[in-house]
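agent> fetching stored inputs for the adenosine-5'-triphosphate docking request
agent> found them:
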Amino acid sequence: MDNRTLPYLLLLPATLFLCVFFLYPFALVAWQAFTNEAGFTLEHFRTMADHWKFPIAFWNTMLLALAVVPVQVVLSITMAMMVTRMQRGRDIMLYIWTIPLGISDLAAGIIWLAIFEQTGFLNSMLYGLGVIEQPTNFLSYQNTWVIFIAIALAEIWRATAIMLVILVAGLGLIPKEYDEAAEVFGASRWQRLWKVTLPLLRPSLQTALILRVILAFEVFAVVAALGGTSLPVLMGETYNYQFELQDGHVAAALALVILAISIAFTLFFLRVLRVPKGAQI
Amino acid sequence: MKHRFFQGYLYPSYTNSVVTKFNSPEAVVAWEKFRELWQYTNPGSTNFSFMQEQLLSEDVWVAFDHTARLAEAFNQRPDDFIAFPAPSGPTGRGFMPVIAGIAIPRTAPDMDGSKELIAYMMKPETQLATLRATSFFPVVDVDLPDDMPPAVQISGAAIAKMSGSADANPGLLPSGLGDEGGKFNQVYVDTFERIVLAGHDIEAVLEDQAGTLRRIMEETGAPCWAPDLPSEGACPVD
Amino acid sequence: MAEIQIRNVAKTFGTYQALHSIDLTIADQEFMVLLGASGCGKTTLLRIIAGLETPSVGEVWIGGRRVDHLPPRERGIAMVFQNYAVFPHLTVFENVAFGLRMAKLDDRLVRERVERTAGLMHIEALLQRYSGQLSGGQRQRVAVARALAMEPDVILMDEPLSNLDALLRLEMRAELKGVLEASNTTTIYVTHDQVEAMSLADRISVMHQGRIVQAAEPVEVYRNPAAHFVGSFIGNPPMNFITARNQGDGKWQVAGQQFTGPSVASETLEFAIRPEDLSLAETGLQANVRVVEPLGAHILVTCDVEGSLFRAVIDSNSRVKAGDVLHIAPEPDRIRWFDPETTLAVA
Ligand SMILES: Nc1ncnc2c1ncn2[C@@H]1O[C@H](COP(=O)(O)OP(=O)(O)OP(=O)(O)O)[C@@H](O)[C@H]1O
Ligand SMILES: [Mg+2]
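agent> prediction call returned; pasting tokens
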């Protein structure tokens, strides 16, 4: 076989798969979002944007991503460095830390609901300690910020491990000589982190961030479990339009908005964390 | 079941209407009253669904829900709970009995079999068996025997009292809406969330949601149902 | 002032003892070469001095200050790593500037120093490249430049020229020697190239299996190896060894010949002589020639003396060929004696 055609042949199955199971449905969704009986229309986007909950859902989604992802970046980097430096028990630690990954997001939401709800663990504990006089309902529509924090906590708990796993693998790829060289040439711990480890970690950081941010924009089940309808997010609204309101057009429009945000952030991270040619490890 | 509460209880009791007087001075009064009432509810109730759970866990003491969703509370603690009729308002005691209509498509392949099935479902014994199992009350006239589960006995008495009251104002389930049933319900839920939960201005919200409601009615062409007066074509929204 | 003292340093990795009780003093501004076979512990010792490895026992002093509890950056050292460790995410310029930037030097000064050291190491043309775009030898020179730019009190170099071709290595060697002599730097330089060691060192420390067997000036190490290992490791071709039997009164019998040696009681000693200290003679050790290799001005004769392998470097005028039986005579004052038990030299 010719060496020049072989790569394309090998790529063919994956490409076909993507065309059938991604591009085709994507085209269908786009078609649904932009058409009605009369043909092309922006009506569905207008309906979507005019709904009173849309801006709330949009900003809730954004703020959640903004609150959760940076915390996760810091946490996962710290945890990854800790794991990498461990002499023994490394694998066990890693397994323990990645347990939440094995739990579906709905289950994660329910676990945190069991903590925060009126009959939940947090209430029993605070009541037992005498901090509160009677069990209170933390997750009510009156304090959406508590719901927000609960969702953020659940998300951090549930999905930090995804980044952790990627970063641990990434750190493993960095020879320890670089850190040692930096140490010899006068860099403090902090400087070594910023000037050597993090720059060398850029490719993994990029992967982890893109993956995580896209997931953050798709947050749904945890929100549904903890916030019900009190804290609308884009994905919840999409679901609502598709299944409750039976309006696939507006649901498709919302899906496209989520896709657009995801693409925008992916491009952003690709650009910001780009590694120049020749500067790879 | 919030939407059913607004459609079958709140609106009929204050406006004697569901659709037509959606945005009316009477509706404003209704929402004001409801907002005032809301301060006594459990704030978690926006996420409750089967009230029997909250009754049993004593998160709430007074609940509104479908009989089928309350049965467990009555069955488990018949001496602790009572059922009572829906309250009445300026335009009577709105409530929403279920009237079932059964039809056979003209193209059904086995017409006789279908008829037989319907006859079977309408038999008093079948209806009683359904009631016993699910707390869905009979849609045909039957005398309830004495050995029914507590839930049926307790809620049955309340329903009888409610339907027999002098100011009874029964409304029907929304009909003729086809696919748009979900959106129709959403109008009422959105109105509630904006007025009661988010504290928006009542008149403005009603004005805005009335637009959505009108569009749904016009698109589906659904005629009015009780307690709204029958309409020619789509049920109007004033 | 940066005298380096290594006091009774030992290092074990798990159950493997990489260094055994090393004692070594390197004078201020001295150029010390660590020479030894692969795996003998050179890098380990260097890393202990740098602070990248903690000694299992023992102390390290630099400039009169005990440093073994200090982190590397507080030891006043710079290092060239055996595997370069040139940062891939920085340009060559930023690599060379790295230590200077950490020391918060003025930008202009940084530029000046980087350019000067880059000139020394012939990498001016590469300053804007990334390490992924360099050859192994270029990368190595960047690593050396990065250390030189620091102008440190102590510079530790782990085989800094190993990846260069012969010609460039010769040139860099001279360059390095010049630069380091001109500065006031104390240097520890690891290599297993003995020619490099000879030409650069003020003193050579020969390491063997985690011990320093001899630390002395290059000529001394060559002429008077302190142990069998030093004689066999240094010199190309290496020293010849053959068993000598005690005849009493300081007389020793070697392959039927009698030599004057140390007056000790032991049964046998090892008789040692460098190949170039052998010459053809009427009488002497009888040798069966195996291989003859011309080296230009000399020829290398590999032969068999009473079952022991001997090499002699003799004048190329002599017409020796394989199969000949020769008599080779050792220069009497170049003969060295080693105890076969301890392998140490006997005077
Ligand atoms: N981290 C470590 N763990 C276990 N053993 C080690 C470790 N580092 C070095 N060693 C062992 O210690 C011995 C000395 O290693 P070192 O790297 O000092 O050798 P070297 O003299 O520098 O060799 P070379 O000339 O090949 O670089 C070797 O046998 C090596 O296998
Ligand atoms: Mg080494």
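agent> quick read of the result: Residues C 13, 16, 18, 36, 38-44, 82, 192 surround adenosine-5'-triphosphate (ligand 1) (CB under 6 Å).
agent> awaiting further instructions
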